[in-house]
Amino acid sequence: MFKGFYTVATGMVSQQRKTEIITNNMANANTPGFKSDQSTIRSFPDMLMSAVGRTNLPTENQLSFGQIQQIGSVNTGVYLQETLANYAQGSIYETSQNTDVALINGAMPTDEESGQVGAIFFRLEHPEGGEAYTRNGNFTLDGEGYLVNAQGLYVLSAEGERIQLPSDQFNLTQEGNILVNDQLAATLGVSFSANPNTLVKQDNGLYRQIDGTNLPSAFGQEGVTFSMQQSYLEGSNVDSAQSMTDLLTAYRAFEANQKVLQAYDKSMEKAVNEIGRI
Length: 278
Fold this sequence. Notes:
The protein is α+β, with helices and mostly antiparallel strands and 278 residues long. Helices cover 22% and strands 32% of the residues. A 3-stranded antiparallel beta sheet has the order 8-7-14, with no helix packed on it. Strands 11-12-13 form a 3-stranded antiparallel beta sheet, with no helix packed on it. The radius of gyration is 28 Å and the shape is elongated. The model has no long low-confidence stretch (mean pLDDT 87).
């Protein structure tokens, strides 16, 4: 019976964590460039239960031998195996802000080893060193004329340099070239990840490599095509209707485990207070 407590408890913990992931997705349904998280629940390996005993033989010396009788398998519960981001393209909408840029996916190759579809990101300068990446193109100019994101991180060019502009009155081509008075000022930096599962999601829609290294440039990558749209932003790829359905499903599963736990608790109470009295 105690194994039942553990099994039900793991189910409740897993559904609780799944609920937290879904609610975080729903809270960011209107966040530009946000990529929803998906969770995978997996069961622990089953245990094979056996009864060990001895059988006496009707002989003068009372010989006996060990005997093992298989009872059956017992489930040991479930756990949240992993949480992965969904890097599918979000919807594109107009903002009329000259410094807003939407990154639009074209062809993305599939990694042969992992089977994951590649992803592209804007390049940012991380304050702790190295680069950070984002799909949120809600940029602006700081007091010194540098192109920065909403958190003040510098947007990098294709050469990995900060982009300084005289004003926000510039034109952006679909290839990412920034033109000031019809002169090329810089090219927006875009990086490519062949396996996005190697990225770690941080606060404010930022991503970094697990090992801290920088991603290669998306320009010139074989099989990678993309474009950029000025005065547009990429919206979140959260499906609010599906998220609400998944949230109710997780809640019902949690509630079912809770009722099983209450049944185990009543059985244990009866065993202690009534059977123990006999």
